[in-house]
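Aim 2 progress update. The chain analyzed this quarter is reproduced below.
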Amino acid sequence: MKQGCRIAAVYSGISYQRGILIESDYRKNMEVIPINNLENTDLKDYDVLIFPRGTDEELALKNSKKIEEFLNDKKVVIAFGEIPRNWLPGSEWGGVTPEDDGPLKICRYIIGSSGNKLHDIETKHELFEGIENHDLHWHKGATGWCCHGHLVPPAGSEVLVINETGATMMYIDRNTTAGSMLISCQLDAMCHAYHGVEGAKKLLDNCLVWVKKEVTKLRKVL
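Predicted structure tokens:
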């Protein structure tokens, strides 16, 4: 079985992406693929693709089939930020409401085909180790309103964070493809880790721990 976990982050040239991916200690955890080069990059030796908030969606959409093929090779994609062009398999951006930028709630349940909750999972997801609800409200106070919307997860997804109306802010999809997708809109951890938000740093660190375990699980699937 292949050892290790090779992570690539797709870089669209934005300042906070550069700050995290090129200038911070996080550069030790992942390689960088400029999004202009994604079409011609051989992804077979990578296990994880991370798309930070601010990803060029037109180029992502152009490469949507390649991203889907990557996932169907039992790989993992993590996406932060709004995705109104729906370039990820099964993804649907739900638009923007004021509650998306308000207090958020950590949860864990499987969602049904009509958006109903099928059943709760009692244990807290490891992505939120050391994190409470208040750690996920990043735009309060003087920083003002900054909203990236909510998501409409496909049936069978594991919903992890909701807003006060119950709309999904983060979920894991292991059903649409043979791989796994962790999709989050408002919780753009890379951007806020760059700006020094402790809750965002914790979440980003936890994501990097979780994704290595997820890669190992996928390698064991026949």
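The chain has one domain: 7-220. Residues 17 and 23 are 9 Å apart (CA to CA). These observations will guide the mutagenesis experiments scheduled for the next reporting period.
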